């Protein structure tokens, strides 16, 4: 590993947790500091079983410049997972998305500039907007940014900040944009875990509108492997796209979950569509595969989904309380 002391912001969230766990398991010499604000989707239990000899967890905000500088000066790389990331929440209250996704990124960039530390920025395919459902096009590194929601707009803004700090101040930094992730430890407001939890809880899952919107699915472990490839081989100023080229409609995903859990897919409930709902995402990861010698391993979505369902079945204590809160929120909003 090129870097031996790494600050992982948002390391108690979904992808951050999987990154930390994988890194500690496969890279014996690496020391990790996690900085996480522990908002509703961050959970210290995700890391509780890990040895503290090479892991230090700090509860704090990426917008706290003093704390960020204190942590950054003692590491040689920062990987930023910290983000408000749920589209529905950004429509209800955009302000937290501006704070964490924009000001938080700015704070980190200023710290790595001051202490000459490498920075990797974890972003999303949603910055590119959407594609026509009927097209075969896929977004590439040079595709134009056309974000649709307050969430994706703030992530697009943070990407632009990184590029500006690379060009204007000469910091060493890379960006990656990933398609939709799935796997263990994902908070139950997201499509796949919420559907699994709803069915296990004895209710019928919901889908926005027709459910024909297409998403590009990537197992979180493959994403983590790609991020580690960036840390090992990535070149400053470059952008890397991660995708398994697995495009499925939301309705198809729900139907697969229903069938794997022995339920009738006809019981899926269609609710009013979300405002500005993107139609289709798709990324072309061919350049990243060649540049980093990275390829997704979990290419059988049904098998990956089966493993994910089994994890949620075996960890019901982990998600039950959160699922009740999410369902109460959506019931109050009438969906």
Descriptive overview:
This protein is an alpha/beta fold. The protein has a domain of 227 residues: Rossmann fold, CATH 3.40.50.720. 42% of the residues lie in helices and 16% in strands. It contains eleven helices and twelve strands. The strands form three sheets. It has a seven-stranded parallel beta sheet with strand order 3-2-1-4-5-6-10, with helices on both faces. Helix 5 links the parallel strand 5 and strand 6. Helix 6 crosses helix 10. It is globular and about 55 Å long. It starts with a strand and ends with a helix.
CATH topology of one domain: Rossmann fold
Extract low-pLDDT stretches.
none
Rounded mean pLDDT score: 93
Count of individual helical segments: 11
> Please, what is the oligomeric state?
single chain
Distance between the termini: 46 Å
CATH class wording of one domain:
Alpha Beta
Helix amount: 40-55%
| Structural category | alpha/beta
Largest sheet strand order: 3-2-1-4-5-6-10
Overall CATH architecture of one domain: 3-Layer(aba) Sandwich
Roughly what fraction of the amino acids lie in strands?
A: 15-25%
Overall, the morphology is globular
Largest sheet: 7 strands, parallel
N-to-C SSE string, H for helix and E for strand: EHEEHEHHEHEEHEEHEEHEHHH
Protein name: dTDP-glucose 4,6-dehydratase
Catalytic activity: dTDP-alpha-D-glucose = dTDP-4-dehydro-6-deoxy-alpha-D-glucose + H2O
Cofactor: NAD(+)
Family: Belongs to the NAD(P)-dependent epimerase/dehydratase family. dTDP-glucose dehydratase subfamily.
